[in-house]
Amino acid sequence: MRLPAQFEHSMRELLREEAEAFLATYASPRTSGLRINALKLSRAAYEERFGAAGDRIPWTAGGLYTAEEDRPGKHLHYYLGLYYIQEPSAMLPAELLGVLPGHRVLDLCAAPGGKSTQLAGKLAGRGVLVTNDNASERTKALAKNVERAGAANAIVMNEEPERLAEAFGAFFDRVLVDAPCSGEGMFRKDEEMVREWERHPDTVQRYAAMQRGILREAAKLVAPGGKLLYSTCTFSPEENEGSVALFLAEHPDFSVEKVEAPPEWGFGPGRPDWLTPEGTAGLEGERLASLAGTVRVWPHRSRGEGHYAALLVREGGAADAGAAVADKSGAQDAAETREAEAAGRDWSFPPLASVDGPADRRASVSASMRTPAAAKEKPRPGRAPQGGHGRGRDSGGKGRPAAGQTDAQKREMLMAFARDMLPDWRPSGRLIVRGDMLYLQPDGLPPIERLHPVRPGWLLGSASKHRFEPSQALAMGLRMTDAARSLRLSSDEDEALKYMKGESLHPDPSRITDAEGNPASGRGWALVCIDDCPAGWGRWDGALLKNELLPGWRWV
Ligand SMILES: C[S@@+](CC[C@H](N)C(=O)[O-])C[C@H]1O[C@@H](n2cnc3c(N)ncnc32)[C@H](O)[C@@H]1O
């Protein structure tokens, strides 16, 4: 690979005797990997069922090295969200952030969602993940990847960091800033980055300025005692230690938490000594030296592409207070769910939270379970969702209000669907209606109506005319055993691939089963599952299973 002369010169200056080993890596293939989706399966369970998929990536739970010829993107399991294809070093930042179930987590520069799906796995369905990117085109892939992973507690935003900081304040226990950067660490992966670097001599400076602006806003979003992980996939000291030095100089309430890694992983320390005197932003002494506690991943030392990560902790507050609080509320939810179950069919979704309505109309599931309520709701004007998805369609469903349907009626349609199809399903959150679309939003968020959510919650489906249509996102976030009617296929069967290609199926009626795997009664929606994982919806008429998989989710 031909490297930009200026890049090669700078790397020789920095690395000196190590430079040859570093430059030699450009003659060997890049590393690649996949990460098993903890929301669906553990690595042990994956390997037990499907065999070992590759060498383990030591720094990441569920991470496996792959070879070019493996083509993991061409396997049904990829479509089912059982794993995400991700460069091995790119798995490090989310791992270092120390996310616990119940945390409030923000992924500020998130598209296309590699680290968001990893963070969602760490949350294990508890707490909230706000995943954001300011490039609206890129948020489509972000939303789809988050949905494919089955993250039911995520909201997807298309916002500028300033506006998030205004709306949320210091709300988050964990913030990830996987910053836009000059991408020097990805030259082996993407030669276009090499050309881009060459075309713009000021690339490094331009990105450094961007990163510093983003970090300033990110600081406002971290709760006292919370943590911020800053990462790039580049080598330049200006974009790495330099951006963190300025951050520390401007934010005395943050400090570096040293990254501890076993020597065999090969990580290098941060290099404050590579900063110019101006590059230190006036940082001195111990604070400057603490930058050595940040981490550099080098392709000649580790089995991964170039990366940088800095873990920054904000002082004050009780460490992990968010997780503790959320754990408590999780226990409370479980207790209240049991109470509601005991009350039989009175269990209900929360009252509607109108996107335009006053804040005091918002209510939690737990409150609604005590007082099922929808019938009293007044009709509201529908409002087009941002990037709305009819049944999770990639570009359709412009969020037109269903003619004549009130929000309360739409909620009732969802309830009727859930009673028929998902009798034991007990999600938590608050129900949001936007146009035809119904979403379940994690509890406890501040008002976000003035922002641009691409998904203000888990997209459950759309209620138009007289029927509720469940979304692909709903299917992907369910378990096979949630469904009162399912068709269970194995990835070895031709039928599985036919379904994923969009074909309708003619299964023997005995294969349409209930949650326990016994023959199911009734007709209507059925959850199609492959290797016990939901793949999408079909409509069963007693002889034919009509394929309801949307084109954007099909096998290609
Ligand atoms: C390195 S990529 C993120 C990769 C992503 N974290 C992942 O793991 O898939 C950086 C992202 O930052 C976004 N971005 C650039 N400037 C931004 C800003 N001011 N606010 C939020 N996102 C920004 C870009 O659109 C890009 O998607």
TrEMBL record:
Coiled coil location: none
CDD domains on file: AdoMet_MTases (cd02440), RsmF_methylt_CTD1 (cd21147)
Alphabetized PROSITE patterns for the sequence: NOL1_NOP2_SUN, SAM_MT_RSMB_NOP
Active site per the UniProt annotation: C233 (nucleophile)
Domain SAM-dependent MTase RsmB/NOP-type: 11-315
Alphabetical list of InterPro entries matching this protein: Methyltr_RsmF_N, MeTrfase_RsmB-F_NOP2_cat, MeTrfase_RsmB-F_NOP2_dom, Nol1_Nop2_Fmu_2, RCMT, RsmB/NOL1/NOP2-like_CS, RsmF_methylt_CI, SAM-dependent_MTases_sf
Keyword list, A-Z: Cytoplasm, Methyltransferase, RNA-binding, S-adenosyl-L-methionine, Transferase
Chain residues that bind S-adenosyl-L-methionine: C109, A110, A111, P112, G113, G114, K115, D133, D178
GO molecular function: RNA binding; RNA methyltransferase activity
Biased composition (Low complexity): 324-334
Ranges of biased composition (kind: Basic and acidic residues): 335-344
Residue ranges of the region described as Disordered: 324-407
Biological process, per Gene Ontology: RNA methylation
Family matches, as PANTHER family: 28S RRNA (CYTOSINE(4447)-C(5))-METHYLTRANSFERASE-RELATED, NOP2 YEAST -RELATED NOL1/NOP2/FMU SUN DOMAIN-CONTAINING
Membership in a protein family: Belongs to the class I-like SAM-binding methyltransferase superfamily. RsmB/NOP family.
The protein's name: RsmF rRNA methyltransferase first C-terminal domain-containing protein
The organism of origin for this protein: Cohnella lubricantis
